[in-house]
Design brief:
The chain is built from 21 helices and 29 strands. The chain is globular and about 80 Å long. Helices cover 39% and strands 21% of the residues. A 5-stranded parallel sheet has the order 4-3-5-6-7, sandwiched between helices.
């Protein structure tokens, strides 16, 4: 049973007393790492909380937080909680309409943002949502001539706070003392895959239970270093960079910008690392591009030792028996290939790495574990503080998400849907009692919407979203995510969407990775003017076809999946984009929306056409819209005899 006295502000005060000189936050600014210890963070948060109090922020109010990962924005979360308020982080790249919806739904009157860009957004949103009274900004560049009422710098807000603290002695401590574990600690909005985002209310008790569970499971200490670069509005960042950091007291490092993440990661050398599959896919793509540009000797050495790694790397990492000759070969590979490779990726010091947010392809998972990165999957959702299943050391399976986490009960409904009961379960959806009752049944089980099954050792396998799993006309189970993840293992394929439910054959949309394919094309002297031109090139189609046919060969060998091989495909003329509503902000495919938007292409794929003309409206970064048109070629690819599943 969680102690109702446990809150994050009390955790903050405890760290300030137990480890005052230990680095709590670092940030790279103008090429130099700045550091704040726990004692300094206590002072910063206190001044900020008192500043908010001076402006009239009170218990029960919600505080919008918008920007890239910055120490001061994490402090803003703590400051709101110290006063009994609730932080509401927003996706910093969200379009105006999405942002306005969250601001209105959460009844925001106060906001703390990163810089001029976010201030301008909120100012522009005045017509859609005019109720924000106070905005504080961290970065003062470009703000000199802003004179709007209610607008002030982070530094000025803290000055007000220190003055207020002097004239109201004891008020800050009383506010912290009034906090309870059952109070709402944060509102995180879902990605809105199937509709408008819902605000998930998580209590201090639930988040601390998730943080404590993960820390104890991996024996994390205050000596860990983590790189905080994923959106603050995402539950994954909330768990790793906030809940676990505030539980264990380890150091949170914020990169200078999104463009410098890899460089900053190599400098920090995190010991504990978390990234969604997309990041691991991009890292692998970078590796493969560099190897394509390497000399013949290096390429041959890389291929040789990666074959060794595929055979025995994962077994060595798990402490399983491996022949001596293989161990010696792997040891040599560690010196010549795996060690330098991990150093380039910034993974040299990583003791444990996690991935979640979407299913990771087994091939991608196997690659990282084979080179000695202790990569694990975990399974969770915003509604469960991202805490449902974990993979114990020595029990890693590439096709499962592990065992139910300590304190979590997992079972399957009659239709295969995963149901969860846990102390980390959300309190409710904000102002949505109807949705709350729909998601949590009378027995207290949360309905995840995912279809899964348990293997004979109790490990959970997630097949796909329950709503996405279908059947083909021949009765075969169609799990699109399973197929798409296999396709995205190839560095040349950035995104894939497959269609087969209620059809005779499976067909696919492909997005190429412009960097990987562009590099491949340049080395072959293929000229192109942009994404659309490159995507339509006959040799690029041949490159994609080779990837698909390798996936088909894998599917043919998978029991129950052989009938879902891809028969026809096209390469889309534009990249799927969150700004065009085709992906969520966490880059999950909005499958239903894509099926409706590109219905003419799906019909052409299944109608045996050789090509299909299409015009698509796109949104540009400055808010303008335009049309992208193309006559898309449709090609057939080779399929293989399917292995029959055992009776």
């Amino acid at each position: 049973m969680q102690d109702d006295h446990e809150t994050f502000p009390r955790r903050l005060l405890a760290h300030g007393q137990v480890r005052p000189g230990k680095p709590a936050f670092r940030e790279k600014h103008l090429g130099i790492w700045q550091s704040w210890n726990w004692a300094q963070v206590n002072d910063e948060v206190r001044a900020l909380a008192c500043g908010l109090a001076a402006l009239g922020f009170e218990r029960g109010m919600n505080l919008a937080i918008i920007g890239d990962n910055r120490p001061r924005l994490y402090w803003a979360m703590l400051a709101a909680q110290c006063l009994g308020g609730v932080p509401v982080p927003l996706y910093q790249d969200a379009p105006a309409t999405d942002m306005a919806y969250v601001l209105e739904n959460a009844e925001i009157h106060y906001a703390i943002v990163e810089d001029q860009e976010q201030v301008d957004k909120l100012m522009e949103l005045q017509t859609l949502y005019p109720h924000i009274r106070h905005i504080a900004y961290d970065d003062e560049r470009g703000m000199r001539h802003y004179r709007q009422a209610g607008l002030l710098s982070f530094a000025r807000l803290q000055e007000l706070g220190r003055e207020w603290d002097r004239t109201h002695p004891g008020m800050f401590d009383a506010a912290v003392d009034a906090g309870k574990g059952g109070d709402n600690a944060i509102i995180l909005y879902t990605s809105g895959t199937t509709g408008k985002p819902k605000g998930v209310c998580q209590t201090h008790a639930a988040l601390i239970a998730a943080g404590t569970g993960g820390v104890n499971f991996e024996n994390l200490t205050d000596a860990e270093d983590i790189l905080s670069y994923l959106p603050m509005a995402w539950v994954g960042d909330c768990l790793f960079s906030f809940a676990q950091a505030m539980t264990a007291g380890f150091t949170v490092n914020c990169p200078e910008s999104g463009d410098t993440v890899m460089t900053d990661m190599r400098e920090i050398g995190p010991t504990y690392y978390f990234a969604p599959p997309r990041v691991f896919e991009n890292m692998l793509t970078t590796v493969m591009i560099r190897m394509e540009d390497a000399g013949a000797v290096k390429r041959a050495m890389f291929r040789h030792f990666m074959a060794v790694a595929r055979r025995s790397g994962a077994a060595i990492l798990d402490g399983k028996p491996v022949p001596l000759t293989e161990r010696l070969s792997y040891a040599l590979g560690r010196v010549l290939v795996y060690g330098p490779l991990k150093n380039v990726l910034g993974l040299s010091r990583v003791r444990v790495a996690y991935t979640a947010g979407a299913a990771i392809g087994p091939d991608l998972f196997r690659f990282y574990r084979s080179i000695g990165v202790n990569l694990k999957q975990f399974y969770g959702s915003t509604e469960t503080c991202a805490y449902i299943c974990l993979q114990p050391d020595g029990q890693i399976k590439f096709d499962s998400v592990g065992l139910p986490a300590p304190g979590v009960e997992v079972k399957l409904a009659d239709n295969g849907e995963v149901l969860v009961k846990s102390p980390t379960l959300m309190d409710c959806y904000y102002k949505r009692p109807d949705a709350t009752c729909e998601a949590i049944d009378a027995q207290g089980y949360f309905h995840t919407g995912d279809a899964g099954l348990f293997d004979h050792e109790g490990h959970l396998k997630i097949i796909d979203r329950a709503a996405d799993v279908g059947r083909m006309n021949n009765g075969a189970i169609f799990a699109p995510n399973f197929i798409e993840n296999k396709l995205k293992f190839f560095p040349f394929i950035k995104e894939a969407v497959v269609f087969g439910h209620g059809r005779d054959e499976v067909c696919a949309f492909i997005n190429i990775d412009i960097e990987a394919v562009g590099n491949w094309a340049e080395r072959r002297g293929i000229a192109y003017s942009g994404y659309t031109d490159l995507a339509a090139h006959p040799q690029v189609y041949g490159l994609v076809r080779d990837c698909i046919e390798q996936v088909n060969a894998d599917l043919a060998a998978e029991p129950m999946m052989g009938d879902t091989q891809i028969h026809r495909y096209l390469v889309l003329h534009k990249e799927l984009d969150p700004d065009d509503d085709e992906l969520t902000r966490t880059r999950k495919v909005r499958r239903k929306f894509i099926a409706e938007k590109y219905a003419v292409l799906i019909d052409a794929l299944h109608g045996d056409k050789a090509s299909q003309y299409i015009e698509t409206q796109v949104k540009f970064e400055d808010g303008r819209t335009g049309l992208v048109a193309a006559d898309l070629k449709i090609e057939r690819c080779k399929t293989f005899p399917a292995v029959q599943a055992a009776a």
